[in-house]
Specification:
By secondary structure, the chain is an alpha+beta fold. 26% of the residues lie in helices and 25% in strands. The strands form nine sheets. A seven-stranded mixed beta sheet has the order 3-7-1-14-11-12-13, with helices on both faces. A six-stranded mixed beta sheet has the order 9-18-17-16-10-20. Strands 21-29-30-33 form a four-stranded mixed beta sheet, sandwiched between helices. The chain is globular and about 85 Å long.
């Protein structure tokens, strides 16, 4: 089904928060204020690696308007945070490990006074050797950044006999791929309001993707009971994983409790750049072999991830990358090994796609190189190697049966964009013949290079002889939920409120993904009510139950399951109450708009039931995200599948790559919220566009070169193609009761390798490093001035690095 307003029909609704957002009426958490509020700010290290010899705060504390100055000595509990491994100091005691490390914090009557106080704090540093790459961190002589060494986490998965299988391969492609340090670039930078109560309790109004996890970590830092901390975590002005971990919360909380007044902190963009999380830069070496018929036989992968100075979720990101390095393909012999390595390069952590974006770029690059080496159509090559419905998961674990990969493949095969590629490659005049050394870039090699039979790169002339077009495609298999061995709770609550509304409460957050609209539609489906009958509570630890994190493409799926568990209990209880009031048998009653109905007539309003009392009309459920029964750490059970095809235009004089059109096919079960579904895929598409073509938080000596959005470029509306089509595949196998799969991440994963494949077809250049370098694609103008040359000869790209 092509997803658009026409196909969605009545389910194409205006978001409940939409009008307030577009008019600016909606207050995000960082817009809040409170009487008697003071302003907090954080002193961060200017050095990527240094020893702290002394911290002097007397001058800052004496400054008029300053109400609190804190250092590590003022942390009453554990001076560490981190979801998986609490190894990051709240306030550094004796050592800083990156330029964003916090050393002190100040609260003052004005932002100006707070800033001046920071300048008066004296910190005496002794600079230490800087580890600015994973390779440097692994060197025997490298200084140890943590007591356990410089390796945060190592993964290894193996099946079959890889080396023996390589000896039987007809074609082997070997390549190393590199991906950038991408920023989340959310509109609302990190911040919040922290309000101490007269009873010693604390209210925290700060964006996060897991309010209960923040509460647990803050309780540990503040040495106070979790129940004394209220975390309000919604609405949020964007997150994409970047606000999953604590950021400014410890400092606001400590300052508020220290001075006994509400404290507001809101980071500038530069503070967000240097202190915030980034996508893990990865270097991925792959060696992949096939037999003469194109069947995958052997696949060896080595992943080196720069996790930065502290752990956060670096280990699970590497675990996810390890699993997804195999993808939706049948490969009998596999050997994957990965390392997440500490460096002084900021902190890498949670980011939309969670390690999948990096390895899928590499894996799909291998598929394209192998297909070309064999002279096969790239999409047909994928078909003959595609997983079947009942195949195990990438790590050999049992998974929910799914034919999503085949459905996606078929949809892309019928794509008008893919048909344009096929037509272009059969234009023999436009063909660029490559020799054996060209199948991989200079850093890789191919063992066998048959004639490509017209399936290789094509250089077609358009408006100018230096403008070329190409089409590429990629496949994605993306796990939902946190995976085996990781606590992944879910739950929710429903009841009739005192005002007569169907009130649902979830510990999830609305951060732009459209959860409010999805909830509204699900509740209307299950209870046949009107939007005005519904009250939704999100992201408040005092008012909503523990529902797990709003991450990992899990939220819609878990909310759907919770509501289906709660629906029969709530509906029966309300109908029984209405039966008592009306005298009509329960079997004749049903819920409907505004109340309880018997046939065509409403017999009791919800408000009337509430006036009689709501006791016994509240229900709660708690359960766990579905996991594989096999004890394989991190292995997933539910997957979303996607395919993407794109057409690009490359200007060989400037090296500019313009994306002209994109089609996504997504197999994720029933579409709950058509507009939200489309928005997630289109939004992920825009983020992937930046990942592929422009975004990289460049560092030099572990210091950021890109310090703001004037040097760190993100796609604008001018960069996004006008044509983005999304095809939703809703089919699920019989007896699949898991409902909709997540689509929050999958739209961001496949576009980069599809663009790389399209650039290859257009220019003859293999891409193995993101973002794609313009310099790599540029050709001298003299190339295009040869007299009587009908086509352009592409230089020997085999000598170029990707």
């Amino acid at each position: 089904m092509k997803l658009d307003r026409e196909s969605a029909g009545a389910r194409w609704i205006v978001r409940p928060d939409g009008c307030d957002k577009v008019t600016g009426k909606l207050n995000f958490l960082t817009d809040l204020s409170f009487p008697g509020m003071v302003y907090g700010t954080i002193l961060r290290s200017p050095y990527p690696h240094a020893r702290i010899k002394a911290i002097r705060t007397d001058a800052a504390a004496r400054l008029p308007g300053v109400v609190a100055v804190i250092t590590h000595r003022d942390v009453p509990g554990v001076n560490r945070f981190g979801i998986m491994y609490p190894d990051q100091p709240v306030l550094c005691e004796d050592r800083v490990r990156f330029v964003g490390d916090a050393v002190a914090a100040v609260a003052a009557e004005s932002e100006e006074a707070a800033g001046e106080a920071l300048r008066l704090i004296e910190v005496e540093y002794e600079e230490l050797p800087v580890i600015d790459s994973p390779e440097a961190a692994l060197a025997p002589e490298a200084p140890r950044l943590h007591p356990g060494g410089n390796v945060l986490h190592r993964t290894h998965y193996e099946r079959g006999n890889v080396e023996g299988a390589f000896r039987r391969c007809a074609v082997i492609v070997e390549e190393t791929y590199e991906t950038p340090r991408q920023m989340h670039a959310y509109m609302e930078t990190e911040g919040g309001l922290f309000v101490p109560g007269p009873d010693g309790k604390l209210a925290v109004y700060a964006p996060t993707q897991h309010g209960y996890m923040d509460r647990m970590q803050l309780a540990r830092i503040l040495a106070m009971p979790e129940t004394d901390i209220r975390v309000v975590s919604s609405p949020i002005g964007g997150s994409f994983g970047g606000k999953d971990e604590l950021n400014i919360q410890p400092y606001g909380a400590l300052l508020a409790l220290c001075c006994g007044r509400p404290v507001k902190i809101h980071q500038s963009r530069w503070e967000s750049v240097r202190a915030g999380l980034k996508r893990h830069p990865m270097k991925i070496a792959m060696k992949t072999g096939v037999d003469a018929d194109g069947r995958l036989l052997a696949h060896r992968v080595r992943i080196l991830a720069d996790t930065g100075a502290y752990a956060t979720l670096g280990a699970p990101v590497l675990q996810f990358a390890t699993e997804h390095a195999v993808g939706p393909y049948r490969i009998p012999h596999v050997d994957v090994e990965g390392w997440a390595v500490y460096t002084n390069n900021g902190v890498s952590g949670e980011f939309r796609g969670f390690g999948g974006n990096q390895v899928v770029f590499a894996l799909e690059g291998q598929m394209d190189r192998l297909a070309e080496a064999l002279g096969m159509d790239a999409w047909e090559f994928r078909r003959i190697n595609l997983r079947g419905m009942d195949d195990p998961g990438p790590l050999g674990q049992r998974v929910a049966p799914t034919d999503g990969a085949r459905h996606v493949w078929e949809t892309i095969r019928r794509s008008s964009l893919w048909e344009r590629r096929s037509g272009r490659t059969t234009d023999r005049r436009a063909e660029t013949r490559l020799h054996q050394r060209d199948v991989s870039s200079g850093s890789g090699h191919v063992d066998v290079r048959p004639d490509n039979g017209g399936s290789g790169p094509a250089a077609a002339s358009f408006s100018s002889p230096w403008v070329r077009r190409g089409v590429g495609a990629a496949m994605v298999m993306h796990g939902c939920g946190l995976g085996f061995g990781i606590p992944d709770p879910a739950g929710g609550r429903i009841g009739l409120s005192a005002q007569g509304n169907i009130q649902v409460a979830f510990g999830h957050e609305e951060f732009g993904q459209g959860l409010l609209a999805s909830l509204q539609l699900m509740i209307q489906d299950l209870f046949a009510c009107d939007p005005g009958d519904i009250e939704i509570i999100l992201g408040d630890t005092d008012r909503a139950p523990h529902s797990g994190s709003s991450t990992a493409s899990r939220t819609t799926s878990m909310v759907w399951q919770a509501l289906h568990r709660l629906q029969p209990h709530f509906s029966r209880a309300v109908c029984e109450r209405a039966s008592t009031m009306s005298g009509i048998p329960v079997s004749h009653l049903r819920l409907g708009p505004g109340g309880v109905w018997a046939g065509p007539e409403r017999v009791v309003r919800y408000r009337e039931i509430a006036e009689k009392g709501t006791e016994g009309l509240q229900f709660e459920t708690q359960f766990h995200f579905p996991v594989t029964p096999d004890a394989i750490m991190g292995g997933h059970y539910l997957y979303t599948f996607a395919g993407v095809v794109t057409e690009v235009e490359v200007n060989l004089l400037t090296g500019q790559v313009t994306v002209l059109g994109v089609e996504h096919a997504v197999a994720a079960g029933p579409v709950v919220n058509p507009m939200g579904y489309l928005g997630q895929i289109e939004g992920g598409n825009g983020m992937a566009l930046g990942f592929a073509l422009m975004e990289d938080a460049v560092m030099d000596g572990s210091r950021y070169v890109t310090t703001n959005l004037d040097t760190y470029l993100i796609p604008t509306i001018r960069d996004v193609p006008e044509r983005i089509e999304v095809y939703a595949i809703e089919d699920l196998p019989p007896n699949d009761n898991y409902g909709p799969r997540g689509v929050g991440e999958v739209g961001s994963v496949g576009l980069a390798p599809a663009i790389a494949a399209a650039v290859r077809q257009a220019t003859g250049t293999w891409i193995n490093r993101l973002p794609i370098s313009r310099e790599q694609l540029m050709r001298p103008i003299s190339t295009f001035l040869h007299e009587n040359a009908p086509m352009v000869s592409v230089p020997d790209v085999g000598k170029e690095e990707g």
